[in-house]
Amino acid sequence: xxxxxxxxxxxxxxxxxxxxxxxxxxxxxxxxxxxxxxxxxxxxxxxxxxxxxxxxxxxxxxxxxxxxxxxxxxxxxxxxxxxxxxxxxxxxxxxxxxxxxxxxxxxxxxxxxxxxxxxxxxxxxxxxxxxxxxxxxxxxxxxxxxxxxxxxxxxxxxxxxxxxxxxxxxxxxxxxxxxxxxxxxxxxxxxxxxxxxxxxxxxxxxxxxxxxxxxxxxxxxxxxxxxxxxxxxxxxxxxxxxxxxx
Amino acid sequence: xxxxxxxxxxxxxxxxxxxxxxxxxxxxxxxxxxxxxxxxxxxxxxxxxxxxxxxxxxxxxxxxxxxxxxxxxxxxxxxxxxxxxxxxxxxxxxxxxxxxxxxxxxxxxxxxxxxxxxxxxxxxxxxxxxxxxxxxxxxxxxxxxxxxxxxxxxxxxxxxxxxxxxxxxxxxxxxxxxxxxxxxxxxxxxxxxxxxxxxxxxxxxxxxxxxxxxxxxxxxxxxxxxxxxxxxxxxxxxxxxxxxxxxxxxx
Lengths: 246, 251
Description:
The complex is a heterodimer of chains A (246) and B (251).
Chain A: H1 3-43, H2 48-63, H3 66-80, H4 85-110, H5 114-122, H6 127-157, H7 169-180, H8 183-212, H9 237-241
Chain B: E1 11-20, E2 23-33, E3 38-42, H1 49-56, E4 64-69, E5 72-73, H2 78-85, E6 88-91, H3 103-113, H4 119-132, H5 148-160, E7 166-170, H6 178-193, E8 198-201, H7 205-211, E9 214-219, E10 222-227, H8 229-234, H9 239-250
Helix pairs in contact in B: 3-4, 3-5, 4-5, 5-6
């Protein structure tokens, strides 16, 4: 049977498995974003013990293989209570990604110029409001490309959950090749599915990035291009002449 | 605008000491500024002018001494300091406009979040102020598309939007190309003429001469000279003051 014939034959199976993979990754990333935010906040806290805790967490998670984390969580939890593979996998993926996302958030916040925070505080804006109106939106804008990258990694890493028996995309290809003895075809086929997911995700992130970077695009004729970083004085003769003097 | 009674200073600083670790930056500074007064702080770099200014709205915490603004003792407790800060406008050397907001949004943010004004009211106020600084048509552009002089004028409008009792200017023209300095000083002079209480750190001696009611010369972490522009700039009595002004005239 040709690749295309079997592609069509197995499409329903793979599409169903795609939904499982997407759900698994989405749940894991949603948890990871919240957890990562908390860890990043701890890492930037003024209280030393919180910083230590965050550093230890990030160190342990980044220093051990994801597959080991999945097994430890799955078998560790099933000692105490029966936990579905989906949730064990989602939690392991969430824990794993939260460490990386925490580092991304931290770098994003630290990249927000101190002067902007001071400007906001000098207007009487509280710490919390400054966080919400200035630091968070600007951090999001600088970290979006890196965050997108992490999401892509997470989609592909979710394949490791197949080893605790989740019938997601990768497990589907493993099962099929065991039946039809066509490992090359099956693994190529599943790769196409991952590739398509990642391409769509990349497109979405790029669109988001574009819509969030309005401020970096020149808005009007005669204005200088937004090529230099925010806050630097831009001077062009055309720009000055076109404006009404006070 | 303010309810300060005649004679009582709007900003009153007593025996201000500020240290960064071992490093003493302000060593016993007293400064009173009355309503409607324009005070210009000059002096060599490292004298502590900017630090003194930043102490007034609590961007720097003083090590000892007292600061009163509008009859209220400055406290660093979050709710207290936010309330006092909303009465003190500040303009920075680096403009510090929020790059992800349009010019109008920059001016509206604190009106809405701090004063609780409606979107419509704050937008209207933003447009008024933009007209006043000569940037009426720039309400909906992003700061990056403006020149430095325009950005600084927006920053002034942003600070004015909260109807502050006093405006602080921290070297507002130092980051500007020479040909853009005039437009910012023009706006500041108009503000001074309109009776705004202002404390200005600057190297622009022409501005000091034309707009200041009082010039304060700082050197070596202290105020060494104080008086009308003529007194301080033309006939300085202190040795440090004379040295600083000699240096200026050589440039």
